[in-house]
Amino acid sequence: MEIRELSPLILALDTSDLEEAREKAARVRESVDIVKVGLQLFASAGTRGVEALKDDGFEVFLDIKMIDIPNTVSSAIVALCDLEPLMLTLHTMGGQEMMRGAEIAVREHCDGTSIRKPLLIGVTVLTSLDMLALTKIGISDSIESQVERLAKLAKESGMDGLVTSPLETLKVRREVGPEMLLITPGVRLEGTSQDDQKRVATPVDALSAGADFIVVGRPVFRAGDPAEVADEILRSAGRD
Predict the structure, then answer these.
(1) 3-class DSSP state for residue 232?
(2) Are 162 and 121 in contact (CB under 8 A)?
(3) For the chain, what is the domain count?
(4) What local confidence, expressed as pLDDT, does residue 1 receive?
(5) I want to staple 210 with a disulfide (CB 3.0 to 4.6 A). Which of 49, 83, 159, 173 is the partner?
(6) 24 assigned to active site
(7) Can you give the pTM of this predicted structure?
(8) Residue 230 belongs to a domain with what CATH number?
(9) How buried is 126 (Cβ within 10 angstroms: 0-12 exposed, 13-18 middle, 19+ buried)?
(10) Catalytic position from the list 24, 36, 65, 155
(11) Cβ contacts of 10 within 8 Å, gap of 6 or more
């Protein structure tokens, strides 16, 4: 399977209720190949949730932003490999040793077995953070500089891709080149609520900037007709 042949729209399953997640995912099946399982759903449904969604025919983007000492992350990520998610996230602020250790552990665990190696995706600066929030935690550089620094570190550490906000995607693409996957959250149709996202863009702007995938949660998940909203997002991006 060539990953870039999949639908560019990833549905974020923002719920603790597995059955609700499965029902909403089923309603957008024609527009969505990948669903995102984040901390909220994984905390409630765990590995059972990932397995159920895979049984329903979806690829799973397991977005739990792993960050801890290198040995802990390597051990945990190897255990998750057995679920065969398409993608797994690590937080790049865990540092190069953590990321490199995870990449080596995953490769050694999957090579020579029937287990599909997940793509390791680095998270740089959360889209819910703005410059004021970064300043309060002691980061004085601009958001763009911090994102670019962490993106370069992730590439050097063997990550397969990055999560980037729409406002940094173009610069990150130029920094890391065409091979790394770029996944962009904080995507909203023009004129809709930003919810708690600070750095947002429209689907067409995100994809035009170099994103391979866009992640949309609440605008689809909360819609009266999720399938119609998902179709509208793809139409607006010229991907219908």
Answers:
(1) helix
(2) yes
(3) 1
(4) 60
(5) 173
(6) no
(7) 0.90
(8) 3.20.20.70
(9) middle
(10) 65
(11) 32, 34, 35, 36, 61, 183, 213, 214, 215, 216
